[in-house]
Design brief:
2 helices; about 60% helix; rod-shaped; mainly alpha
Length: about 60
Amino acid sequence: MFIGIAFIAVGFIMMSGGGSDDPAVFNEAMYNFQRIRLAPTLVIIGLGIEIYAILLNPQK
């Protein structure tokens, strides 16, 4: 389960930031590959790992 939590945390950390100090200036870095594709994919993979870890039968 810790691996899934790590994936989710890394995904959310990668999505954060990218703002501009001046509200009148638009920052194009908000729409880069890391924030739009990679980070949400990591969060979904982390959720999948968590679901698998919860449903895994430990007695096997």
